[in-house]
Fold this protein.
Amino acid sequence: MEFYKLQSGGRMPALGYGTFLATGLELEKSLNIALETGYRFFDTAIGYNNEQIIGKVLNEWISAGKVTREELFILTKLPSFGNRPEEVDTYIKQSLQDLRLDYIDMYLIHLPIGLFKNGKSLYSDMELDKSTDHLKIWKKMEDQVVNGRAKSIGLSNFNIKQVQRILDNCKIRPESLQNENHLYFQSPEVVQFCKLNNIILIAYSSLGMKSFRELIGISWNNKQLPEMLENDVLVKVANKHGKTPAQALLRFINQKGMSVIPKSTNPDRIVENFQIFDFKLDTEDMDALCSLDNGESGRIVRFTMIKNIEDHPEYPF
Ligand SMILES: NC(=O)c1ccc[n+]([C@@H]2O[C@H](COP(=O)([O-])OP(=O)(O)OC[C@H]3O[C@@H](n4cnc5c(N)ncnc54)[C@H](OP(=O)(O)O)[C@@H]3O)[C@@H](O)[C@H]2O)c1
């Protein structure tokens, strides 16, 4: 496993296990396989409704002495319906309780926009809170490091301008930014910005989130693009190294200095996605894959399930 050093003293594994759309018994079984395979970094969020299951499995592993708390790296996020300074304490405490942990390794603001929950469970039913104040929320995020509930803090789905505003006004710097990043949406300017500012970029949906796209009927804007894992150029690069397209995709992102968090609940693919450090893509491979960037038209995630999200003053895209 490769690691990235954190300014706060710890280290973040370069490969983690994503848990979006994974829940119930299927997730419980998958987490056991992931832990047996060697995954120690787990990515979740209140919005994924699975923290209690993750907490149960982690607790079983720690209690059985099969893993120590220090070996684990647990990332979770402040939900957009908690994007108000006075709600940060409440939501991190809820995550700690559900995950059965004393501290979170990396706590992120999930989205730059705020919502009012008003007793609703579906994002599509929640109202926009247009008063979202990043600097006031960030101050409360910093408090979590001071009071020991979080070891480090960061952002997700923020654009460069929004991250820069935090950098210009913070006491504790954001240590990571979790954004969409994959073959068709490579955001080289964000990669460069993070590198310059010593922020670890955690790439999400780096395998193209096929099941989610099928579930809600969204895709990249360029309809001509082939299914990502079947792209001819990618398949050729993968074959050259005796690897699968998914392994080549993950290694591609990793070699650009990012952390990857593929999600799978398939036992074989959980193992497959972990085996990305035993080969290296050469310059020719990297150039060929870089040339497949589609810029904005390759973006998948726009959070359009949130009603009128584009009207929020902090909508990032
Ligand atoms: N911060 C945010 O706003 C945000 C947004 C999206 C995602 N995330 C995080 O990033 C993680 C990863 O992103 P994602 O879940 O959207 O999508 P992803 O990891 O790009 O893709 C997951 C899909 O790929 C399939 N898959 C996994 N491994 C495969 C392999 N080796 N070969 C072929 N297909 C494979 C999975 O199916 P099977 O399960 O059947 O294998 C699933 O359908 C999430 O789980 C979540 O933790 C964060």
